[in-house]
């Protein structure tokens, strides 16, 4: 089997370079598509499907007129998914490299203070695994060791959405170099989530964003390539895990070795494929399997969303399913937003975003740095 780098080198993409206008439309489409999905989904995160249907029935999609499942929420505000995506982008804009310790420091500061320039007093909506990893004594020095220890202590079964929700921006930053996208997605995913499924789903979404920014318009092809790259990246990452675990305490290494067969089984390429392709072929949102907050479910929803045509119809269907609605809608919104562009997003929803000007400035700054 060709290695990941061989596969990438042999890819013969027949695409036309996007004009700066088209490129900007896609970057802004992805960032605003994420933020709108997140802000709408946050209203009914982890609410039952029945209650979600009741909440959204006969109502226009709106972030205004407040009733929300989350405490202390403000109209038009997005949640941790968008905030953490922007933390990664802001870290790259400051350093011009992807750096997990800089991101870790920003993440910890954000958890305590939020974005102070937006008047936040703390980061909201953070998942339990991410909280536990950030609180780990080794987190600031070495985020991936903190994350690995938490993963192993939880019997090596933590395929949560905390990584996939924030890594799609990495598909923008290095879009010209798919190998770099994979390395960055792995680095930033494993900064809090070591489970190969969390890492793999982050890779799949980031690579898909890059392929669209390279000008690939055929979505079937985007998904086939994303699958092939992710399958190989997960294989490499499983080998990396062996080396990584040599840096943790002996009793934790023993748990890892005991759990290794289960890790390999759950990282099986067939399961990965199931969440990338059949959901589209059958027009099904894979929301009914596993628990809420399962990273493959979020990836499946994201790729289903990518295959849809109308942004509002797609987001409504995703958030009406309940569960991890903001994260599912943020990832699906980012993918479809990248495909159709900012110009095809509903203007009324863009205007409802409380911090849209701030987001637009970040998007413009990013576009100017990465478009060549
Ligand atoms: Mg959230």
UniProtKB/TrEMBL annotation:
Annotated signal sequence is none
Alphabetized, the UniProt keywords read: Magnesium, Metal-binding
Keyword Magnesium tagged: yes
Asked if the Swiss-Prot or TrEMBL record annotates the protein with the keyword Chloroplast, the reply is no
* Coiled coil (UniProt feature): none
Report the GO molecular function annotations. metal ion binding
Cofactor(s) this protein cannot do without: Mg(2+)
In this chain, Mg(2+) is annotated as bound at: 79-81, 324, 326-327
Q: Name one Pfam family in it.
A: ADP_ribosyl_GH
Q: How is the cofactor bound?
A: Binds 2 magnesium ions per subunit.
What is the protein name stated in its UniProt record? ADP-ribosylglycohydrolase
The organism that produces this protein has a lineage beginning with: Eukaryota, Sar, Alveolata, Ciliophora, Postciliodesmatophora
């Amino acid at each position: 089997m060709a290695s990941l780098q061989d596969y990438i080198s042999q890819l013969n993409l027949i695409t036309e370079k996007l004009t700066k206008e088209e490129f900007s439309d896609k970057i802004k489409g992805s960032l605003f598509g994420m933020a709108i999905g997140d802000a709408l989904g946050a209203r009914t995160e982890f609410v039952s499907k029945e209650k979600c249907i009741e909440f959204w029935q006969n109502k226009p999609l709106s972030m205004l007129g407040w009733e929300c499942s989350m405490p202390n929420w403000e109209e038009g505000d997005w949640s941790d998914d968008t905030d953490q995506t922007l933390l990664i982008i802001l870290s790259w804009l400051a350093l011009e490299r992807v750096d997990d310790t800089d991101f870790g420091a920003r993440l910890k500061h954000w958890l305590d203070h939020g974005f102070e320039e937006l008047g936040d007093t703390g980061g909201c909506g953070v998942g339990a695994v991410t909280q536990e990893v950030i609180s780990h004594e080794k987190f600031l020095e070495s985020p991936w060791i903190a994350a690995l220890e938490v993963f192993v202590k939880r019997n090596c079964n933590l395929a949560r959405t905390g990584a996939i929700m924030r890594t799609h921006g990495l598909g923008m930053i290095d879009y010209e170099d798919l190998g770099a996208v994979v390395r960055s997605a792995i680095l930033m995913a494993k900064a809090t989530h070591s489970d190969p499924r969390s890492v793999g789903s982050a890779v799949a979404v980031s690579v898909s964003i890059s392929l669209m920014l390279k000008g690939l318009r055929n979505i079937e092809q985007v998904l086939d390539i994303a699958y092939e790259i992710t399958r190989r990246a997960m294989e490499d990452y499983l080998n990396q895990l062996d080396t990584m675990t040599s840096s943790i305490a002996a009793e934790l290494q023993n748990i890892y070795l005991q759990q290794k067969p289960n890790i390999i089984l759950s990282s099986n390429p067939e399961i990965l494929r199931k969440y990338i392709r059949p959901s589209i072929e059958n027009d099904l949102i894979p929301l009914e399997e596993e628990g809420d907050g399962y990273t493959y479910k979020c990836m499946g929803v994201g790729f289903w969303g990518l295959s849809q045509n109308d942004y509002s119809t797609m987001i409504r269907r995703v958030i009406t399913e309940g569960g991890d609605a903001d994260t599912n809608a943020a990832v699906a919104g980012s993918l479809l937003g990248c495909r159709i562009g900012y110009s095809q997003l509903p203007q009324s929803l863009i205007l409802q975003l409380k911090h849209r000007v701030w987001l637009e400035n970040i998007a413009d700054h990013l576009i100017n740095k990465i478009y060549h």
